[in-house]
Automatic annotation (TrEMBL), chain A:
It comes from Zobellia uliginosa. This is Tetratricopeptide repeat-containing protein. The chain crosses the membrane at residues 78-97. It comes from the Bacteria. Keywords: Membrane, Transmembrane, Transmembrane helix.
From TrEMBL, chain B:
The keyword Cell inner membrane does not apply. Belongs to the sigma-70 factor family. ECF subfamily. This is RNA polymerase sigma factor, sigma-70 family. Residues 22-89 form the RNA polymerase sigma-70 region domain. It comes from Zobellia uliginosa. Keywords: Sigma factor, Transcription, Transcription regulation. The keyword Transcription regulation applies.
Amino acid sequence: MDKDTLINTYFEGSLTESQKKDFDHLLETDTQFAEDFEFQRELQKSLKKEERKAVKQMLATMSASEPKQETKVISLRPWLVAASIIVLLGIGSWFTFFNTNNYSTEELYNANFVAYENVVHPIERSAELEDLQTKAFTAYENEDYAEALSLFKTLQEKNNDGYIQFYEAITLMQLQKHKEAVSLLENYIKADGELKDRAIWYLALSDLKLGRIDESKLQLQKLVSLNGFKATAAKRLLEELD
Amino acid sequence: MEDQQLISQMKKRDRNALKDVYKGYKSEFFRFASRYTSDDVVLEDIFQDAIIVLYENALSGKLDELKSSLKTYLFSVGKFMIFKKFRDTKELTTDEDYVFDRNEITVINDVYEDDGPNEYQRKVVENFKKLGDKCREILELFYLEGLKIDEIMRVQGYENKNVVKSQKSRCLKSLKDLILKHNG
């Protein structure tokens, strides 16, 4: 095999063991060979880096032309940042939705209900934390709601963290058990839970689903006056219900 | 869009495929990665790097028989980089992650550590652009797209491998000369 072919075969990634030996030997003993190879390797790196630069520039342009998200939330805890992204996404879909009119409460519910993201117990899957809570939130994230519900119920008995009530309620909503969800959400709101405003939104949606329009409106008005989570969405839903 | 279609577009260096991947998965990636960091600048950078890795591995034919979805692959690359960034190795692999082979990890590390061309590499590129179309094409096919000599022969319709080889050698020589002239 001539030297050029040896170098080409290197770049093609198909040197055999004995060719590899020849290659290494030449690299050490033949300066012309080493120079030729080095030049080609440098060319490859240069071309790759150039291509990467071009792709990055293209993507950066796309990123710059995205509509800026209005994140006015300043002192939120880290997990709430995740939540605020969902809110913004929610608002986006809202506008699309309301370009057309006259939806039934059922349709309004379906357009608005999205299970709340697990923000309290990030699942670190490989960590040896196969505790109950991890199992429950794993089931929740995997949309295995029947399993999640039974695990949340067990958790409730052992652990009084309010947010479990909140997630249990969302799980119940997923399982179309809105009456049970309402009572959990009401408890959670009464206890002034950390995700209270979220709970109010889901309570409004549950009421909507149950056809309790006035109750639903009441909750939506609370959100509007809190002027935080889902305030815009609540306002629009109110207009639609009127 | 179908994964395989995106991959075959990437193999043709069709950048629209990269745009589609960017648009299609960005918000989901940010949501997915927000549990590791909330720094949007870091996430943007890693997401773009992950797309480049996807692109380069598609080019080299690594993804021809992809065992997972394109999304799983992309997100696994991103996650790998996030852990690299935060020096946190305890969670490096999980069940649902794609398992990369040595070559793939080399590409990930290479893209991750790429801080742009150095002075010599910039000079190489500058002079490369001065070459004729035919030379740029053959060199890009070989060094950038990873086509083998006989593949180039077939794709470009050369009579035989030796013609490709000597054409490539001539092009390398021209490039070297240009760089020398530029230096002198």
